[in-house]
TrEMBL record:
Residues making up the signal peptide according to the UniProt record: none
Keyword tags: Iron, Iron-sulfur, Metal-binding, Transit peptide
Alphabetized Pfam families for the sequence: Rsm22 (PF09243)
Originating organism: Treponema bryantii
Molecular functions per Gene Ontology: iron-sulfur cluster binding; metal ion binding; methyltransferase activity; structural constituent of ribosome
A GO cellular-component term linked to this record: small ribosomal subunit
Keyword Cell membrane in annotation: no
Coiled coil: none
Protein's name according to its UniProt entry: Small ribosomal subunit Rsm22
Lineage: Bacteria, Pseudomonadati, Spirochaetota, Spirochaetia, Spirochaetales
Gene Ontology biological-process entries: translation
Length: 405
């Protein structure tokens, strides 16, 4: 063990609930009551809700062939989606949005575009996660093939804005498919969980589809727009995001998160979606402090969730110069759950400018070695001082450089 070569410090966690206000946490905890106020279900419909959620889950995963493009227009499916998926997505997205750098978000009144907006989940999540943005006059173009889901989403957003007592952002709903012309170019573009659906409907590999996605995103945006793309943490979606990342970097853009460097992506998911062992970039958090009523509903729908995952890229607005760190200091991003290693050690895979790394530390039962300065979690950004990077040892199994903390 070559601990003398390194020292480390936790910079930020990706899913720290401490970054959410008490008001936001309260609204998330009672999201079911907000929907009930906007689009009530009677007691018989509420009784059937778990079963309908379960049926929808089949259509979104193992029975995709039976799903219609406009599935969100169907009242039962929309109601099930909003009361389960939107709620979980708000839990995921609020944590993420509250913990990524502010340089991604608008700083003045501007035009924003949310693609595959569904029930406006991203807009509502951003309102809840970043209260400082509420004072900006943002115009949100929301694009989706389903008009019904956006109409319900706008009612939910307005109801939540009313709870917070601030003037809501201006919403312009556009019914149409990805590629539909939008009147104004966006200074900020968001998209959550849509590319995954487009990929499911296509037999083409991400290497092909990404080119089209990137060109269309460019057409929608001003040159220096902030861009925030979030997808489920599955291999094909992560591969799509990694390929988009490469294109943004080639065009001189800065990825504010999750990437701690602009070198080649060491978790690019190349072929991971075909079952190969390549690692793909995704992050997870434990759902133990998710809203209790949402957890109960998930159990009733036989879809209990112990961890939530996602993949994402956040592109800074502007063409900022990369600030180079001092030669012996580097930032790394933890990108796996804990791995058990021999001799009371544990580890985590991490993304670094040296490529894939295996961060190694004594586990909780290790009485021989000093306790590590902190216990990492998936998504943590850590600053490490490495005196001689060239002398970092390598893990035989994965080829990753080993960093001791
Ligand atoms: C899984 S939902 C995500 C909704 C919302 N962004 C969220 O994260 O909760 C995917 C959305 O993409 C929409 N969608 C699917 N294909 C689309 C297309 N070609 N163009 C625009 N929207 C599309 C669906 O109607 C649906 O509302």
């Amino acid at each position: 063990m070559n601990k003398e070569n390194t020292s480390s410090k936790l910079i930020t966690s990706l899913f720290d609930t401490g970054s959410l206000t008490r008001e936001t946490t309260n609204i998330l905890n009672s999201f079911d009551e907000i929907i009930q106020g906007v689009r009530p279900l009677n007691s018989r419909q509420l009784q059937q809700l778990p079963e309908n959620i379960r049926n929808l889950s089949h259509q979104l995963t193992d029975d995709r062939a039976s799903r219609r493009l406009g599935y969100m227009n169907d009242n039962i499916q929309l109601s099930s989606y909003v009361r389960y998926y939107t709620w979980w997505n708000l839990v995921r997205l609020t944590r993420l949005f509250a913990n990524i750098p502010a340089t991604v978000f608008p700083t003045s009144d501007c035009t924003c575009l949310d693609l595959g907006s569904g029930p406006l989940t991203v807009v509502t999540a951003l309102w809840l996660a970043r209260p400082e943005l509420r004072k900006l006059k943002l115009t949100w173009y929301c694009l989706d093939v389903s008009a019904n889901s956006m109409a319900l989403g706008e009612d939910i957003f307005l109801s939540i804005a009313a709870c917070t007592g601030e003037e809501p952002w201006h919403i312009v709903r556009v019914k149409g498919a990805f590629g539909t012309t939008i009147k104004q170019k966006a200074n900020f573009l968001t998209c959550a969980n849509m590319f995954n659906e487009l990929d499911q409907a296509s037999d083409m590999p991400p290497e092909f589809t990404t080119k089209k996605y990137y060109e269309q995103i460019q057409r929608y945006c001003e040159n220096d727009a902030g861009v925030l793309l979030v997808e489920p943490g599955v291999p094909k979606a992560a591969r799509t995001l990694s390929l988009l990342r490469t294109r943004f970097i080639k065009d001189g853009r800065t990825i504010a998160a999750p990437c701690p460097h602009a070198e080649e992506c060491p978790m690019s998911g190349f072929k991971a979606y075909t079952g190969s062992k390549n690692k793909w970039c995704n992050f997870a958090f434990s759902t133990e402090d998710a809203p209790a009523k949402l957890q109960k509903l998930s159990v009733a729908a036989k879809l209990p969730k112990e961890r939530a995952t996602l993949s994402f890229i956040a592109v800074e607005h502007g063409h900022a110069e990369l600030v180079s760190a001092s030669p012996d200091t580097t930032s790394i991003r933890i990108a796996s759950d804990k791995l058990r290693l021999p001799n009371y050690m544990c580890g985590y895979y991490a993304c670094t400018r040296f490529g894939l790394a295996l961060v190694r530390l004594p586990d909780e039962n290790n009485k021989k070695l000093p306790k590590p300065p902190f216990r990492p979690q998936s998504g943590d950004l850590i600053q490490v001082k490495i005196k001689t990077p060239d002398s970092l040892p390598k893990d035989e199994k994965s080829g990753a450089v080993i960093i001791e903390i």
